[in-house]
Amino acid sequence: MRTDIIFIVGPTATGKSDAAFRLAKSAGAQIISCDSMLIYQEPRIITSKPSKQMLDEVKHHFINIISVEENYSVFDYYKQCISLIDELIKKDTPLIACGGTGLYVKALLDGIFEGAGRDDALRERLRRDAEKHGNLYLYEKLKKIDPQTAAKFSANDLKRIIRALEVYSLSGKPISAFQKEARGIYGKYNIKIFGFKVDRERLYERINKRVGEMFSEGAVREVGGLMTKNLSLTAEKIIGIKEISGFLRGELSEQEAGELMKKNTRNFAKRQFTWFNKDKRIEWIDADDLSPGRLSEKILKEIEG
Predict the structure, then answer these.
(1) Of 61, 25, 66, 23, nearest to 42 (Cα)?
(2) Cα separation of 132 and 129, whole Å?
């Protein structure tokens, strides 16, 4: 059976983008980015964006699509990406989905629902109820209106309890009903998911080296330019902006900013691995000593059996 989409996932600095590029060139495939930071047009250095040559040689989707001043949700990504995938597969276009944003990957594979909007006043009222009566009070309310959702978490998951109660209050539908409407591509298409892993110490060495190279390539100048813009809430989360802006404001030395950026990137990589390691559909590849070319060859071999 033909593989419709190959997923390459895993922590940052494991060689995903380069391997996906090599694989796409050899297979005549297009790449779907699953990286929430690559969607922004302005930052290039601090997001480790693929080079212009790579973007010119292989068609990449969901890179450089919006400004850092625009908000973009995982649901926006899901809607646009699912539509594109359906269109490209109808044309028999080989696809490689590559990235380390777990929510993007999960949304594509398993679906996501838009649900109701938000009501900050209602959220605050529910938070006050929890402070006054305890979390269990809200949890019992949720059990009455949506026992299926309540069974998925404990009374201590206050944020999720409040969101579930908010959805019901605004829509009249339990959040579990919305979840049943979510549809992903796993099961719809023939999909293979590969995860790249690297020994922790070696991964941290790669991260430290990459951050050092970012500073050499002009990360400080790039962040200085970003600070003149009205950054969206999602863009503000790009690793490097907070750390380097601290240096530019005189709160940190350049060395301190660099070390903080390394630390935060290492912690991010740890969270990425924890997220993906829970997904038993992923076939892990030890990427320690393999070049991008060897990694792409290994994936091809696995697919061809």
Answers:
(1) 66
(2) 5
Count how many domains the chain has: 2
CATH number of the domain that residue 16 is part of: 3.40.50.300
Is residue 17 within 8 A of residue 203, CB to CB? The reply is: no
The whole-angstrom separation of Cα 58 and Cα 53 is 9
Per-residue pLDDT tens over the stretch 29-49: 999 999 999 999 999 999 999
Tokens of 196: 């790249």
| Torsional sign, CA 135, 138, 144, 150 | negative
The residues, any chain, with a CB within 8 Å of residue 168's CB and separated by 6 or more, are 145, 146, 174, 175
CA distance linking residue 5 with residue 248, whole number of Å: 43
Q: Are 281 and 260 in contact (CB under 8 A)?
A: no
Give the pTM. 0.86
User: Do 140 and 16 belong together in one domain?
Assistant: no
